[in-house]
Amino acid sequence: MRRTSPDVPERPGSGGARTGPGGVLRVLVVDDEPLVRVGLRVILDAEPDLEVVGEAADGAEVPGAVEATRPDVVLLDVRMPRVDGIAATRAIVARASAPRVLVMTTFENDDHVLDALRAGAHGFLLKRARPEDLAQAVRVVAHGESLLFPDAVRRLATARPARGDALRSSRLTEREGEVLRLMATGRSNQEIARELFLGVETVRTHVGNLLAKLGVRDRTQAVVAAYESGFVLPGT
Question: pLDDT of 29-61, one tens digit each?
Fold first, then answer.
């Protein structure tokens, strides 16, 4: 599991966490299974810096729950019977002041995850993750970072037919292409800087430029686009 740092300023209200009193992160839990919601609440509420402020049983309940509880992070099951996590993610990120979205899945090869990332989720987590990894994942996403599993994203993206050469026509510079390929392996800005013998601020500039050229919101979506388009190939 790698986490990756933000590279361009977020739009107002969508950046780092709006922590509550004492720096406590507010979490909304969304899952159609009551026992799962209870288990997640127990795990997260046991952490001194995390608080579950609400629950929802379906994606249809998410907009109202977000409005009522004002969470920093929405922990969201990607598969639900009525309104799934993909549609719920779209509704969340469309808000003027949107919380961060962390989707959960039972299976690593769940293609719904890829759709949720494309819709704007900031990362995903397997439901079988250890309690400490769940808590850390919430912290990582809440503080403006993306939670990526490069191998899993690669497998999901390359299992689908390539979506054309739109990324190849985006006029990335050679250096921006190098940065994107390293992003696709899950490397952080610091790691990219060391590998390319660049300053971290220079890497951030390249990342910001390539995000703008690709028309994507963050590096998660950039990595998905890189694999889906064939710009980055498995094993490269």
Answer: 999 999 999 999 999 999 999 999 999 999 999
Q: For residue 136, give the amino acid letter.
A: Q
Contact 140, 186 (CB under 8 A): no
Check residue 173 and give left, alpha or beta (phi > 0: left; psi -120 to 50: alpha): beta
Q: Rounded to two decimals, what is the model's pTM?
A: 0.72
Report the alpha-carbon distance of residue 177 to residue 162 in Å, rounded.
Answer: 18
**163-213 per-position pLDDT tens digit:** 555 566 678 999 999 999 898 887 888 899 999 999 999 999 999 999 998
Intra-chain end-to-end CA distance of the chain, in Å: 19
**CB contact at 8 A, 151 and 63:** no
Question: What type of residue is 175?
Answer: R
